[in-house]
Design a protein that fits this description.
The protein is built from 11 helices and 5 strands, in the order H-H-H-H-E-E-H-H-H-H-E-E-E-H-H-H. The chain is α+β, with helices and mostly antiparallel strands. The two termini are about 40 Å apart.
Length: about 475
């Protein structure tokens, strides 16, 4: 019965803790964007899905890309660092949450004192010992006004920020591996085009040199064809360098050497399922983006900071106590009559702080307003990125078709110019102009195909795709 009575003050204190929360009620700001996705000539051909974004393993259809993405999610160092940052933030949140409960520790101690005979009451040298064993409660603050709970909420929201950073890192790894893989395929196709052009120019050079020897071509024709051969060699060297750099970029993203069998030999038509913007209100759809989630977590953290700053104006009550045994002889430490306890509550009320509490509250309100602006700005930026991606997707097919027609026309023009030169109807300068136009058009065709293949990946990224992570228990319980 006595033990129960000793615990009553602690139980009452814990019941009183957390009675008031001075933080403002959180309300998500209204998104300062249009109520629907842009509808204009550029976006009219962008189809709208009735469902949300698929998992990356379902979105990407090429098995080589899927294997590389899986390797990247396991080996990419930026993603690995983000994962450890989340673990650190989760641990710090648990540290903060532990402050809501009293801290009790078992403490055993001995103190010894020697009193010389000149100052001893008995006139003899005295050595005294005191042995103690206690269960001690460190200073525990009653959270009557929510200061500690709001600091705990700040730690929780910081954890959510780091989790969103991990989602961003995953989204970056997933989509940039796919785009780097496409870029490597396009680089190899550009190299193939440059090599074919170089071989073609060597054949033209040999033809013109033979014609010059028999008097059918001029020295000007010879000099002009030498410039085309040199230009083709330069293009070939640049394309070879681009292939190496694209491979290096892909290796960095994957975090390991890329197996040769997983590299593309040319630019494929598509590596993804058909995708466009998910239907629904943009402000709701964009909440799937991790940067929006991080901005909102920072806003909630700033909201909780106001509550902590307000609590500084109110009294703080701290409790300290212990229960245990003490004895001058170690063998009698737990004998009858050696039990004791202490109970030391304290209260402090701010009277004069030099304006610090007022300034802290003003700073908290200003930070909260800045967080609102940052959140709204993140929503607007995300809307713009999706709108741009829709415009690219809506025009990519038409652009590719137009470039294909241009490439076909310039190829026919080049072939015709070469035939007319051989028959003596045109000068080699006309052939040179047509050849350069044809080479540029073929390069543009490869780039247009790359843009078309990458447009779906870009839209998937800006919609928040590839950033799906399992939710921890702490977040599920909120």
């Amino acid at each position: 019965m006595r033990k129960a009575l000793c615990l009553l003050p602690l139980a009452a204190a814990m019941m009183l803790a957390g009675c008031v929360n001075l933080a403002p009620d959180y309300e998500r700001p209204e998104a300062p964007i249009a109520a629907a996705w842009p509808q204009d000539e550029a976006t009219k051909n962008a189809h709208v899905l009735a469902e949300g974004l698929a998992e990356w393993a379902d979105f990407f259809t090429d098995e080589r890309v899927k294997k590389l993405i899986a390797m990247g999610l396991e080996n990419n160092r930026d993603l690995r660092a983000a994962m450890h940052n989340v673990e650190s933030a989760r641990a710090l949140y648990r540290v903060s949450r532990g402050q809501l409960l009293p801290s009790v520790a078992a403490v055993a101690s001995e103190s010894a004192q020697r009193t010389p005979r000149r100052v001893s009451a008995s006139g003899r040298t005295v050595v005294s010992h005191v042995y103690s064993a206690n269960a001690a409660m460190a200073s525990y603050e009653l959270d009557l006004f929510g200061r500690i709970r709001n600091l705990n909420e700040q730690a929780l929201q910081q954890y959510f920020v780091t989790e969103a950073a991990q989602r961003t890192a995953q989204m970056t790894v997933v989509t940039e591996i796919a785009q780097a893989w496409l870029a490597l395929g396009a680089s190899k196709q550009q190299l193939k085009l440059a090599e074919e052009t170089y071989r073609s120019q060597l054949e033209s050079k040999n033809l013109i040199e033979r014609s010059y020897q028999v008097g059918a071509a001029s020295l000007m024709d010879v000099e002009q064809v030498l410039t085309t051969v040199a230009s083709a060699k330069v293009a070939q060297t640049g394309a070879l360098r681009a292939v190496s750099q694209s491979r290096n970029a892909l290796t960095l993203l994957v975090g390991a050497a890329v197996p040769p069998e997983l590299e593309p030999e040319t630019l494929p038509d598509g590596i993804t399922a058909r995708l466009s913007a998910a239907s629904g209100v943009p402000s709701e759809v964009l909440l799937a983006r991790p940067d929006i989630a991080a901005a909102e977590a920072r806003l909630k953290s700033a909201n909780a900071n106001i509550g902590a700053a307000r609590a500084n104006f109110f009294p703080r009550i701290a409790l300290t106590g212990s229960l245990g045994y003490s004895s001058p002889e170690f063998k009698d430490l737990f004998a009858a009559g050696t039990r004791g306890w202490s109970w030391a509550p304290s209260i402090s009320l701010p009277i004069f702080t030099g304006g610090q509490n007022v300034a802290n509250l003003e700073a908290a309100h200003a930070s909260q307003k800045a967080a609102v602006a940052n959140y709204e700005g993140a929503i607007q930026k995300a809307f713009r990125e999706v709108a741009d991606a829709l415009a690219v997707e809506g025009t990519a097919s038409d652009e590719l078709k137009a470039v294909e027609e241009l490439a076909a026309a310039t190829k026919s023009s080049y072939d015709l110019s070469m035939e007319r030169y051989k028959s003596g109807a045109d000068s080699f300068l006309d052939v040179l102009v047509s050849q350069r136009a044809d080479f540029a058009a073929q390069q543009s065709l490869i780039n247009a195909r790359l843009n078309r293949a990458a447009s779906a990946v870009t839209l998937y990224k800006v919609m928040g795709g590839g950033s799906q992570l399992p939710r921890p228990e702490e977040e599920k319980s909120k």
